[in-house]
């Protein structure tokens, strides 16, 4: 299962002509698994971060909501509320992994990220997620 164990590793990949990206074996991804795509505002908007829908992403949001419910100050409550909003706003979509461990990145998102099929991408394990960055020329 994607992200069940810490995701550690690095690989490079390209999109195929249909906009599909191969997900490396070191992520633990399985055929039919549902993943979510988030734009990664921590590094650069043109990056994507992938989480497992059924565990990691929902667990993160639930933890922030729990912390917010127990906030000791208004400032902390507001900070946590902004973080929850950021997580929801960064959501780009939910996708299923095909039988060849690929995900389809839709054309709209490819255009917005300024990605194309001739680009090479760095795929970096980042704990419970996979960071996808366009390789700089």
Work out the helix count. Answer: 3
In total, the number of strands is 8
Estimate what percentage of residues fall within beta strands.
25-35%
Order of helices and strands: EEEEHHEEHEE
Radius of gyration: 16 Å
Helix content: 25-40%
The end-to-end distance, rounded to whole angstroms, is: 33 Å
User: In this structure, how is the largest beta sheet organized?
Assistant: 6 strands, antiparallel
The poorly predicted ranges are: none
Overall, the morphology is globular
Give the strand line-up of the largest sheet. Answer: 1-7-8-4-3-5
- Overall structural class, as computed from helix and strand content, comes to alpha+beta
Average pLDDT confidence is 87
Note down, in words, how this protein is organized:
With 137 residues, the chain is of the alpha+beta class. Helix content is 29%, strand content 30%. The protein has helices at 53-69, 74-89, 107-113; strands at residues 10-14, 20-22, 34-39, 48-52, 91-96, 102-104, 120-126, 129-134. The strands form two sheets. A six-stranded antiparallel sheet has the order 1-7-8-4-3-5. Helix 1 (53-69) packs antiparallel against helix 2. The protein is globular and about 50 Å long. The N and C termini lie far apart (33 Å).
Quick structural summary:
About 30% of the residues lie in helices and about 30% in strands. The chain is of the alpha+beta class and about 140 residues long.
């Amino acid at each position: 299962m994607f992200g069940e164990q810490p995701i550690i590793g690095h690989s490079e990949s390209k999109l195929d002509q249909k906009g599909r990206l191969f997900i490396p074996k070191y992520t633990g991804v399985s055929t039919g698994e549902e993943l979510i795509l988030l734009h990664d505002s921590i590094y650069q908007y043109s990056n994507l971060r992938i989480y497992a829908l059924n565990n990691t992403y929902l667990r993160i949001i639930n933890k922030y909501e729990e912390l917010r419910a127990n906030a000791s100050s208004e400032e902390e409550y507001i900070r946590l509320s902004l973080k929850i909003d950021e997580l929801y706003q960064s959501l780009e979509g939910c996708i299923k992994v095909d039988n060849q461990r690929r995900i389809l990145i839709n054309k709209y998102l490819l255009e917005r990220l300024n990605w194309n099929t001739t680009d090479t991408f760095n795929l970096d394990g980042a704990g419970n997620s996979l960071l996808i960055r366009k390789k700089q020329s």
